[in-house]
Amino acid sequence: MRYEGMVYRPPSEAYSLIVQVTTGCSQNTCTFCAMYKEARFKIRSLKDIKEDFLYAKANYRGIDRIFLADGDALIMPFEDLLEILKFIEELFPNLDRVSLYASPRSILSKTKEQLETLRAHNLKLAYLGIESGSDKVLKDIKKRATADEIIRAGKLIRQAGIKLSATLIMGLGGVQDSKEHVKGSIEVLNAINPDYLGLMTLLVKSGTEIYDDVQEGKFIQLTPEEILLETLELIKGVELKDTVVRSNHVSNYAHVSGVLNKDKASIIRQLEAALENTDFTMSKLMRERYARQTGL
Hints:
This protein is of the alpha/beta class and 296 residues long.
């Protein structure tokens, strides 16, 4: 299998076959992100992509899930992506699902009918980094998307029958924009009602713009306690139906899980219990180690 640069995938794709249909990230401007910096964005040729799938078919067994990498695979032209999905169907007729990373821009570049066609050919799950629902925070981190665009993209992909796994980054507004970050994020999540919600906590990594802002005193990070209070406010404010929420990423100071809104009271209790723990030494060590080893 041929890979170019560091390959990233969601935790839930740990046992999936990963094939790059693009390399790098179509945007690659987010101030907090150190991923894909070593790879220039490009869409791989259909020939090379198909060769990788043929290699996987000949050499691997038990393939039931496929993740199309890299940072925004949905940006591929519709016709090319459809051809790849049809090719995958021929090679792996018993496949459970195909999934990929998407962005507001790449989702909105497709029509509902096109997305429904992709869904009909086994594209069942898209991962979308919402990051924040605040227009100010989104502008500050150079996300190149507004809250309205994120809402429209999230609704569109769900209307097409593709499950949506959304990611939110706690602490991304810093001390100065914490309240706006939470308020806007609640509004976006309530509007979209994603199938899955993954909560992460900001990791400030050397080499990123936000790292420089921290060093210069322009961005003040939240303490672990403030992160948990921010998360608690978010959970209390969302009104969701059957959204599976997890904060099991190593960046977090507390790992909670449940289904919103059904388990809201339980998740709130989990966060309140975590707030009673004033020793975050192990969490800090794990975060530092993870930041050194990855671009996240």
